Automatic annotation (TrEMBL):
Matching CDD domains: TM_PBP2 (cd06261)
GO cellular component: ATP-binding cassette (ABC) transporter complex
Organism: Ancylobacter aquaticus
Entry superkingdom: Bacteria
ABC transmembrane type-1 domain segment(s): 17-205
Family indicated by similarity: Belongs to the binding-protein-dependent transport system permease family. HisMQ subfamily.
Protein name in UniProt: Amino acid ABC transporter membrane protein 2 (PAAT family)
Membrane topology summary: Multi-pass membrane protein
Gene3D superfamilies linked: MetI-like
Main localization category: membrane
Keywords: Cell membrane, Membrane, Transmembrane, Transmembrane helix, Transport
BP GO annotations: amino acid transport
């Protein structure tokens, strides 16, 4: 600890936490965009789209994220393609997040009463008009709390990217520990930083759920 003070350790971990936050944002936003496209394919008419999305969701939910990271990083390497760790981590987490967000949002859409579909159909609305003006506004209110809650899982999931060499918070913790030989101090700070990132999201999800449920009942 002569060369590394407590502040040095914390400063290095906070610098690495920037990449955890950035990767989380990219994964969550990218997963949301892909998930929205998959959602419309899942609940749309036809057979090919729903079947494809169902298979996609089962594949990504039924396999470990760690394995998906390995495949994204080493899979293309078999064909002589050099994939940077940050790119493999981003792609894997986006596809993984999309699978879960698609199912979350599908459940929210299907929770809207069937009578809402029938009432809007009786008004002469087409499918897209029904979704835009009637179904999605109601589903959105239901979807906000679990969506915010899932963002916590995305933040935690970034820790696994250290296995393919992406230097985020947990990887930085290992590097600093090897340099300082103070694992208790280093990983104590790592746990504290993760808590500071995840707790506000979890609390926000709970608050939103209570507020939206009250608004729904009052409505």
């Amino acid at each position: 600890m002569d060369e590394f003070t407590t502040w040095d350790i914390l400063r290095n971990l906070l610098l690495a936490a920037r990449w955890t936050v950035l990767l989380s944002l990219v994964s969550f936003i990218g997963g949301g965009l892909v998930g929205a496209a998959l959602l419309f394919a899942r609940i749309g008419e036809g057979r090919i789209g729903p079947a494809f999305v169902k298979t996609y969701v089962e594949l990504f939910q039924g396999t470990p994220l760690l394995m998906q990271l390995f495949l994204a990083f080493f899979g293309l390497g078999l064909f002589g393609i050099d994939v940077p760790a940050w790119l493999a981590a981003g792609v894997a987490l986006i596809l993984w997040s999309a699978a879960f967000l698609t199912e979350i949002w599908r459940g929210c859409v299907e929770s809207v009463a069937r009578g809402q579909w029938e009432a809007s159909s009786s008004l002469g609305m087409g499918y897209l008009q029904q979704m835009r003006h009637v179904i999605l506004p109601q589903a959105l209110r239901i979807a906000v709390p679990p969506t915010v809650g899932f963002s916590v899982q995305v933040v935690k999931g970034t820790a696994l990217t250290s296995i393919i060499g992406f230097v985020e918070l947990s990887k930085a913790g290992t590097i600093v520990t090897n340099a300082t030989f103070e694992p208790f101090t280093v990983y104590g700070f790592v746990a504290l930083i993760y808590f500071c990132l995840c707790w506000p999201l979890s609390k926000s999800s709970q608050i939103l759920e209570r507020k939206l449920n009250v608004a729904h009942r009052n409505h």
